[in-house]
Amino acid sequence: MSSYEHIGPDWDEEDEQSHGQHELKQRWGLICIKEFTGCILRCIRVLCSRKFLKALLYGQLVSLLLSGTAVFSGLLQQQGVNTPAGQNFLNYCLLCLVYTVMLACRPGDERRRTLGTMLRYDGWKYALLALVDFEANYLVVKAYQFTTITSVQLLNCLTILVVVVLSRIFLKTRYTAVHMAGIVISVVGLGGLVLADLLSGRNTDDPGGSKKWLGDVLVVCGAILYGMSNVGQEFVVKKFPRSDFLGMISLFGSFISGLQFILLEKDEFATVTLSYKIWLPWLSFVLCVFLLYNCMSLTIQKTSATTLNLSMLSASFYSLLFGLFMFHYQFHVLYIVAFVLVISGILVYVSISQEEETSPTDQDSTSTKVVISQTNFEELR
């Protein structure tokens, strides 16, 4: 080996290696930019999609009506009226006048059953669902007399867990990591709303004193019943017309709520002095609940029970907007942040298409159930 020779790569090879590393870094940078751009475009497509806009519109309308019921119920409590059974009785009667009468006048065919057919074969199922639905409303409203609004808001999150578990078991809904991420983001948004309430000085009163535990137990029981009611409602409205559910629930619900009103609240209502300060918020409450039931059934039919409950987490934000003018609540910037988190959670949740939520085998089994149901209906006729 001559003295001019050396071991290792020459300068040209070193330049080539450094150039290759530079190209590799550029390539990785382009890939990252493309992925980020693609993610942004996918988010924009989801934001502009009919599915998200439909879920957002229906869900926030339900949330707005729910906050309206809370406001008018609060006005009634200020007048010393605490009759949740009586308040819901008028709502069930109004629904009954509209949808049960519609069912009674409707002729039966392959896709629509008559009122007599439903009472004969599925009456006990609708009666049980009406009992669950009414008691869920009754327990949560009753809980406000013993515990704080903060406890009700936090414990009511249990409804989402119940809906997810029951939907997976009975409706065969398959939840992905993206769905769970959306649920977590929305629940964190609710935590922000509760924290904003505490920072702004709301929900500091303890109406129950030593009986606060009773209010918490009532909320937990009501949340579980809410979840059962919502999943049962989803099963019905996605298989049959919405009028079937609303007509049968209102028929049995009016009897159940009326009976409970007579047994538990008749004496308390007899002591109330009726005036416009009571009748006006009472009728407003009934109107809000009537519209709420209509919008809830439509929202569940178009989306799902889980999407509905995620949307209802933003009700506290709308209650704040009402409270700013009616109860002189204090505003906190955290309300805006929490509301954005709730909406972001809904965006993440609905970003997965319905086809990805249900496996092909589940779709086949669902279609098979519909065919069997139609065959049984033909036999009944």
Automatic annotation (TrEMBL):
SUPFAM superfamilies: Multidrug resistance efflux transporter EmrE. GO terms for molecular function: transmembrane transporter activity. Keywords: Membrane, Transmembrane, Transmembrane helix, Transport. GO terms for cellular component: membrane. InterPro entries: EmrE-like, SLC35_F1/F2/F6, SLC35F_Transporter. The chain crosses the membrane at residues 55-77, 89-105, 152-171, 178-201, 213-233, 245-264, 276-296, 308-327, 333-352. It is found in: Membrane. The keyword Transport applies. It is a multi-pass membrane protein. Belongs to the SLC35F solute transporter family. Putative solute transporter. This is EamA domain-containing protein. It comes from Pomacea canaliculata (Golden apple snail).
